[in-house]
Structures are given as structure tokens and as C-alpha cells.
Amino acid sequence: MDLYRIIMYETITTYYKELGDYKNAFHYQLKVSETRTKYNANNVSGVLMELEKELLQQRKNMEVEYEKSYKTYLLIIGGILLLLIITLVRLLIVSLQKRVLVERENNHIRNEIEKLTNERNELGIKRIDIASVGLTERQQEIIKLVQQGMTNKQIGDTLFISENTVKYHLKQIYEILGVESRTDLKRSTL
Questions:
Q1: Any coiled-coil ranges, and where (predicted)?
Q2: % helix, strand, coil for the chain, step of 5
Q3: Three-class secondary structure of residue 128 per DSSP
């Protein structure tokens, strides 16, 4: 609408200039300037409003993107935590299963030991009192360590002697007690 007024006022100004009526021409020229200023202000205001709308839309888009990335990160972290929990639960289950198996095996071994002990007692195998046989103190120490289940190397390390020295002492002990193996040595000594 303002654009039509500008055109109309410019036409009137031109008309009065051609007539030589400069007073009215000047008056309408002021109206042209005033209307153009108003028109430009409206255009600038419209452009600013458009820019503001674009900025608001960009801001909304950024917020939506931020929310999407935030949710994605939360999902990823949640997935990782879920995997960790599942792994820990599986490890716990496996550990419990192993414990049950070890307990069963221990009970089985205990039962076997009791069975063998009862069989030995029924057969009349008597125990040898190592203190009364005349073994040296070192030989008695080795027998005690054998009864604890130590290997020759472990016995040597404990007593600060070589593994071959342990073997030599065991050979002497076997001859003195009349046994043939470590197992017989464990069974027959007090």
C-alpha cells in the first residue's frame, strides 16, 4: 500500500512542478520522503523479523540435534553398563559352579580317603612310629613335609638343600621303613 502512495505522491509532485506550483510540489515531495521512510522501516522490520525467524528455527534445530545426540550417548552408556552387568553375572555364575564342583570333588576325595583308610585298617596295616625307628632329625623333617603334600623341590627349598639331597634322604627313609613309594610313606607313618 505504501508503495502505491509513493508512486501517487511522486506523480502529483511532478504535475505541480510542470505547472510551476513549487509550493505544492515541495509539500508532496515531503510526503514522498515521509512515505518512503515509513516504507523502508517496514521493509527493514520485515527483514529483521525474517532473520529472527531463521535464527529461532536454527536454534530449535540445534536443540533437537543436541537432544538426539544426548539420547544416543545415554543409550550407548546404558548398553555398555548392561553388557558389564551381564558379564559380571555370568562370571559369578561360573564362579559358583566351579565352587560347587570343587566342593563335590573334595567330598569325593574325602570319601575315597576314608574308604582307603577303612580298608587299610581292615587289612591290619599298622602304622610305624617314626620316632621309634631311629631316623635322623632331617629325615623326620622330610617325612613331615612329604605328609603335607610337598614336592621334592618344595622340600629342598624349605630345608635349604638340593632336590637331589631330598631324593637321597627319601631313598634312605624308604629302606629303613620298608616302604616303596611316597604314598606308602604317607599311609604308614605317624
A1: 99-126
A2: 85, 0, 10
A3: strand
| Selection from 28, 39, 40 nearest residue 1 by Cα | 39
The verdict on residue 116 lying in a domain is no
Residue 136 backbone zone (phi > 0: left; psi -120 to 50: alpha; other: beta):
beta
pTM for the whole structure: 0.35
71, 86, 108: which is the final residue of a domain?
Answer: 71
Summarised one tens digit per residue, pLDDT across range 56-104 is: 999 999 999 999 999 999 999 999 999 999 999 999 999 999 999 999 9
- Do 125 and 187 meet the contact criterion of CB atoms below 8 Å apart? yes
| Cβ neighbours, 10 Å, residue 142 | 26
Structural domain range at position 11:
2-71
Q: What Cα–Cα distance (Å) separates residue 8 from each residue in 2, 3, 19?
A: 10, 9, 17
Q: Is residue 110 part of a domain?
A: no
Cell 564362579 belongs to residue: 95
> Does the residue 64 lie in any domain?
yes
The tally of domains found in the chain comes to 2
